[in-house]
Write a structure and sequence with these properties.
By secondary structure, the protein is α+β, with helices and mostly antiparallel strands. The protein contains 19 helices and 23 strands. The strands form five sheets. Strands 8-7-6-11-10-9 form a six-stranded antiparallel β-sheet, sandwiched between helices. The protein has a five-stranded parallel β-sheet with strand order 2-1-3-4-5, with helices on both faces. A five-stranded antiparallel β-sheet has the order 13-12-16-15-14, sandwiched between helices. The chain starts with a strand and ends in a 21-residue tail after the last strand.
Length: 610
């Protein structure tokens, strides 16, 4: 059984000892921590696959630790120990992305079932990751192989290294090529190349299809059909070959030259693994490249065989002549761009240009193609329907024996979704999902930066704490959907009222905090507060109901009301509660005597009753 790295976070040594024993069949490395702070440090140091944590611990509890871990890694599997009676804790844990729950004392059967599920999830993630990595490696190896094979007259000089690269990319232990002996004996093939990681492995210099009982394989390969299986799938004669090569799984791909069966490419491994159809298709392209290199044709058919990744893969292929006119595209090209092959043949690939790159960008591509014969990178293009998309593109310049470029081959994939997902994830990590305003994480960062800047240059900043008055009755009477619309209305009002450089944060529930930097006078701050307070003068209609939105506002000023972020926030919060106690819907500063502030005061009347 493939094993895991597991982190146990619990301040009870007895529990830790019990878990160590129960997890022994699943984990090859168990890390322990006594509280949330220690657990967070161990997580960052060891990157465990699974985290098991208690909730109540000194210094930092389990849920606080989980929240910080989720900011670093949203995929690691987490299980917490709970008595299932505290509903608030359960809801908070689910909100933070806890995957499983365990109760103390641990029941062996229930515990094993939960750990097995987490184990299966991790193993599936590993398998998927390995398979994606294998496919990416194979595509890269094929791309490099086509580039190296067809750019020199004697392709065999690069054969050993390229086959070694292909074997490693495929995560296999053996690779070999056999060539049919057409003239002497058409049923005989000799070894053309053989690489095996196992030093105890042997090989056969010659194979006789009839005498070695390989006629069924021969018939299948002649029909351009691959052979793919593990040792259990083959009869006695085939097993003898696999035993000789010290492999337990084998993929055989036919090699054709000028539509005639030339021989085969074999890829085997010590593990009993059967490659999936996508990998078989991609490796079939490698066999086609070998056939094209053998034939050394310089026309379209050779280029299609040597460079176009199979029509069944997700990657688009485009081939142009030396004038950069399109002469071939595959089905994936049409699927990605929306352009049919009949429309693009004979045209310049610039029909895909999005207008988001300047001439300098394209010139750099051509310069590198001219210098190295190869370019790879990210480019933004436009589909037939006008939609902008991002693609990862590799371009090879294909040269003849005289070193002249005859064609260009581009292989690309649409990575728009991955880029958008990464962008959305980064945005959600720093913004409130309901209002789109900054969340506390982003606000804390900007406040810290603003205070450092103000200290360095002798500036003043203000923190404004706003709390909606009588918001709970609206929520209770009209429902949370109406309450959410009111919160979004307030957010839009604040965004329209304040400068773009001011930071607005939904601090939690119906509380909003505003950071105003570069304050020069009280007069300017008063103007901002009056604008914010004008919210109460405008009625808002939600679902046919008219609401008056009032708020209590408290303001603090750096450095007079605090030298740290926490002190400044606490001062603004205190001023806001003072405003509530004075009858709500008004504005209060933390210092009741405004003359104590360092800013030049132009009007001391800073209390507004509504």
């Amino acid at each position: 059984m493939e094993q895991l790295r597991i982190l146990i976070v619990d301040d009870d040594r007895t529990t830790t000892s019990i878990l160590n024993h129960m997890l022994n069949p699943y984990a090859d490395f168990i890390i322990t921590a006594t509280d949330g702070i220690d657990g967070l440090a161990r997580f960052q140091e060891h990157s465990p696959d699974i985290i098991l944590s208690d909730i109540n611990m000194p210094r930092m509890n389990g849920l606080e630790m989980v929240e910080k871990i989720r900011q670093i890694d949203e995929n690691v599997k987490i299980a917490i120990f709970t008595d299932f009676e505290n509903r608030d804790i359960l809801l908070k844990a689910i909100e933070l992305g806890v995957n499983q729950f365990l109760s103390k004392p641990f029941d062996s059967k229930s515990f094993s079932k939960t750990i097995q599920q987490l184990y299966n999830d991790v193993m599936e993630k590993r398998r998927t990751k390995r398979e994606i990595q294998r496919q990416q490696n194979i595509l890269h190896a094929i791309n490099k192989m086509s580039h190296n094979f067809l750019q020199q007259s004697d392709w065999t000089k690069a054969l050993y290294q390229e086959m070694q690269n292909l074997k490693q990319a495929s995560m296999m232990s053996s690779i070999f090529i056999y060539q049919n002996e057409q003239d002497d004996d058409p049923l005989r093939a000799h070894q053309f190349l053989y690489i095996n990681d196992n030093p105890k492995a042997k090989s056969k210099k010659h194979i006789h299809y009839r005498k070695n009982y390989f006629m069924r394989w021969k018939n299948q390969l002649e029909k351009n059909k691959p052979i793919n299986g593990s040792i259990e799938d083959y009869d006695h004669s085939k097993k003898k070959l696999l035993d000789l090569f010290k492999i337990n799984s084998l993929l055989i791909l036919p090699i054709f030259v000028q539509y005639k069966w030339w021989g085969f490419l074999g890829i085997g491994d010590e593990r009993k693994q059967i490659l999936n159809p996508t990998n078989v298709e991609m490796l079939g392209t490698a066999a086609s490249i070998i056939g094209a290199a053998i034939n050394n044709r310089n026309n379209l058919k050779s280029l299609e065989m040597s460079s176009a990744v199979s029509q069944h893969t997700m990657d688009g292929v485009i081939i142009t002549d030396h004038h950069n006119q399109i002469i071939h595209v595959n089905d994936a090209f049409t699927s990605i761009t929306g352009y049919a092959s009949s429309f693009v043949i004979g045209k310049d690939p610039k029909i895909l240009k999005s207008g988001q790159h300047d001439k300098h960008f394209y010139q750099k591509i051509w310069n590198q193609l001219s210098l190295n014969g190869y370019w790879q990178g990210e480019i933004t293009n436009r589909k037939k329907n006008g939609e902008i998309y991002i693609e990862w593109l590799s371009i090879n310049a294909i040269k003849n024996a005289q070193g002249q470029t005859e064609n260009y081959i581009g292989i690309f994939s649409d990575v728009t979704h991955q880029r958008k997902h990464a962008h959305d994830h980064a945005y959600l990590a720093t913004h409130d999902p309901l209002t789109g305003l900054s969340n506390r994480l982003l606000f804390d960062d900007r406040l810290e930066h603003a205070m450092n800047h103000a200290e360095r240059f002798g500036k003043c900043i203000s923190l404004i704490f706003c709390d909606l008055d009588n918001f709970k009755p609206i929520n209770d009477t009209y429902g949370h959907a109406v309450g959410d619309e009111i919160l979004k209305t307030v957010a839009r009002f604040l965004q329209d009222t304040l400068r773009k450089e001011d930071t607005i944060c939904r601090f939690g529930g119906d509380e909003f905090v505003i950071l105003v930097e570069e304050l020069e006078s009280f007069e300017y701050l008063e103007t901002i507060l009056q604008r914010i307070n004008s919210l109460s003068k405008t009625p808002y209609v939600v679902d046919g109901n008219t609401f008056s939105i009032d708020m209590s506002i408290g303001a603090s000023i750096y450095p007079d009301d605090g030298n740290t972020a926490q002190e400044l926030i606490k001062s603004a919060d205190t001023a806001m509660y003072r405003a509530k106690n004075k009858g709500k819907s008004c504005i209060q500063y933390f210092k009741s005597n405004h003359h104590e502030y360092c800013l030049q005061q132009k009007d001391t009347s800073l209390h507004y009753s509504i």
